[in-house]
Each structure stands twice: as structure tokens, then as C-alpha cells.
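Single Protein Entry

Contents — chain, fold
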Amino acid sequence: MISGPRPDVVPVSATLEFARFMSTTPSNPISANNAADHTNADQASSQRTPLFDLHVELGARIVDFAGWEMPLQYAAGIMAEHTHCRNNAALFDVSHMGQLRLRGESAAQMLESLVPCDVVNLPVGKARYSFFTNAQGGILDDLIISNAGDHFYIVVNASMRDQDIAHLREHLGDCTLEELTDSALIALQGPKAAQILGQHCEQALSLNFMETLVAPIAGVECRISRLGYTGEDGFEISIPQSNVVTITKLLLQHEDCMPAGLGARDSLRLEAGLSLYGHEITTTTTPVEASLGWAIQKRRRTEGGFPGADIVLQQFESGTARKLVGLRLAGRVPARQGAQVCNTASDSVGEVTSGGFGPTVEAPVAIAYVETEYASPGTDVLLSIRGKMHPAVVSALPFVPNGYKR
């Protein structure tokens, strides 16, 4: 691993603009001079994952994301990384996310008091997507809960990990919560991910989407879960920090695997119609509005028992005033977060939450909340972008069919 001068660290608020609203040029450089001020104090407080030196060795452009120095892109560029993931496989460092272990006889019941998914009946070896809700039914954060047998393995977002851990600790009761600070996390994503991982861990091939197991990779016990954030088949792999560089390099040796950064991760999840905290899901957004009702199982819809249940369950019955939709833009101008969605009379009827160029779609796409009246696929709308109206049409999500192994 390389140890040398610290590379320039560019604030993600500026550089993800490139990821979401880039032109079709894949290798357009990012300059620290074009970014917002990033003080020495901010740099000093940033954290590094165990793969940081490898990112630098591989030529990554490093950005500050949620207090972590993370790769935005590598030399090939965001477009190339995105396309490679769709067609082959890409490897992402997601060690900045929080990995937690919850133990206790009442662990399932405790979790159910905070989330609307069915944890009590979650089988061993299965994972489930869920979210913490508040008293108004808003989403505090989303997370993955896995039944690991003698404990629940939980992964939370990097930007909210401290708040999520504090939220869980506040309600622990007789349970214990451990943050797995000695474990790194990588994501191997793409249609050839199984072929690549299977060469080193045959047991991983037995997994279906949202299943998890512990198995050796190169002699190292790892937790392998078949899931991810790209819309493609793939795995998230929790690895002891002392072994993560070796295993990452082993996977990257395959000719069909390349490293990918935050930029491609964002454009991939946008095309896959996957929500991002602070964009599609917020403390003022309910699961029903966010089209996440599928993550609330039938028993929980009947029994409730989670924060904001009265509001959420009422919305299942009566509907909501707004809905989350996809938008396909007619031209080449991408819509940014906050762009107003208007009807054909130019009246505002919604707002874009995420938008950018979809490399697979080969056109700009966006996700937005719109008034329910305008939420049907095929509805013509206008987007107010930099003072001009641009035609778009409401689209079903995702923009690209998913490749999950069911």
C-alpha cells in the first residue's frame, strides 16, 4: 500500500454535482479550485477506510463524504465505471457505512418498536430492507436488517450512523449493541459478480437476493449478503479489516472487475430508482409517499406498533397527496435536485429529488415528488431548469430493469 503525500480532498457537495449532472465526457477532471472551501479543520476530522491507500494506489479522486475520505472516481471515469458495472462487475468500498450487531432475547421485538418491517418472523439467513420512522411517520434513515442466528446484523448509512446508533441505544432495554469497528465492507456488483466471487467462495453462489451467510474467502471468514445499491445482482461482503486489502485485490484481479467510486454508485442507483436519504427519503417523507409500502409486511400493516403507524396506515387506506415518480426528459439538459415540476399550464405540481444523466438510458432522468393527479406514467410535465421550461414525461421506476437473483 502507498503511503505518501495526502491527496487533495474535494467536498462531495461540489463533486457529486459532476456525478449527477455531468456531460457525456467520462474523464472530465475535477479541480479542487472549483469546489467549495474545505478547511484544514475539516480535513483533519475526516476518517479513512482500510482501503484508503489502495484507492490512492489505483488513482482515485478522493472526496469528503459524510466525514470520510472516499473515492469519487478512478482514472477510467464515472461513465466507464457505471457501464462496466451494468455489463460486467464493479467493486465499491462501502466501509464508511455503519455495521452493527444487536443481541438479546427481545432484540426482534425491540427492532419492531422502531421500524415497520416484520423482524420477528424474519428467517435466519434472510435480510430485510427497512427504515426508522418518527412520530409523524417520517423516515429517520433506511437500513438493512439481517437475521444472523444468534444476533441481528444491521447496516446503516454513513451520514446517519452516529444518530442511528444513538437511536438504537436509547431503546435497547435488555439488548446489547456492538459497532463492528474492526470490519470493513465492500460491494461487488454487476451481472458477473457471482462468477467472480464464486471462484473464491462457492457457497456464495447458493444465495438468492436478500440472503446472507458466513463463509470463507481466501481462508478468511466473511459475512456475504446478496444485495446492493445498483439495481444489479451482487454482494456486500463484511471482511475483517486486516484482510480487506488482500481480498479486494484478489477480486480486482479478475479481468471483468474494476473499482468504482461514489459517482458511479450514485448514477447506478438513480437509474435503478433507489432512494437516497436526504433526497427521496427525509424526516418529512412517509414510506407510503416514497413508494416504499412494499417494505411494510402485512402483519405490520395490520398491527402497527411502530412510530407514526397511525399516519402511515391511514395513508395506505386513503392515499397521499403526492407520490414518488420517475421522469424522462425530452432533451439533453439534466434536472437538478430542487427543480420544480410543472403541469402543462406551468403551475408547480412537484419537485425533483434526484436527477442526472443516465448512462444506460443514454438520456437525462430524474426522480421527483408530484401531486398524485400527475403521477400516472405517461403524464406530460414541464421541468423548470435555470429559468427555462423543459418537457418531460412521468415514468415508472426503475428506469433500468433490475438484475437481482430471485
About this structure: DSSP finds eleven helices and 21 strands in the chain.
